[in-house]
Amino acid sequence: MSSKVGNRILTMLGIAFATVLPGLAMAFVAVSPAQAATSAPTAQQAWPADAYVVRVDGLACPFCAYGIEKQFSHMPGVTSTDVNLASGVVVVHVKPGTRFDQARIDKTVQQAGFRLKAIVSQPAAGS
6-15, 18-27, 43-52, 85-94: lowest mean pLDDT where? Predict the structure, then answer.
């Protein structure tokens, strides 16, 4: 291929890329704030009555979610775990009457390789 043809192809690809890139950037910016607003925990948010809601530092990928879910699944009384990577929130559903202290939750989070930020909510007294 001659250098003129090669340069022409690269120029066309560059124009196509330059045309598409701003649109993708705009779409990302338009979606990101909305996602952040819906995924970030708030004080007014109603958490499940049968669960511990834990904020964790370091959750970044599906493997992170799997690792922390696995650690919590080994705890007696845990029925399921939901992880929201975007907000760093782990919801640990437990059987009625199951209680964990902060030290136990902190140890479980650390064993998964993360850092406990806070326990946002815990099961209601009657659960």
Answer: 18-27
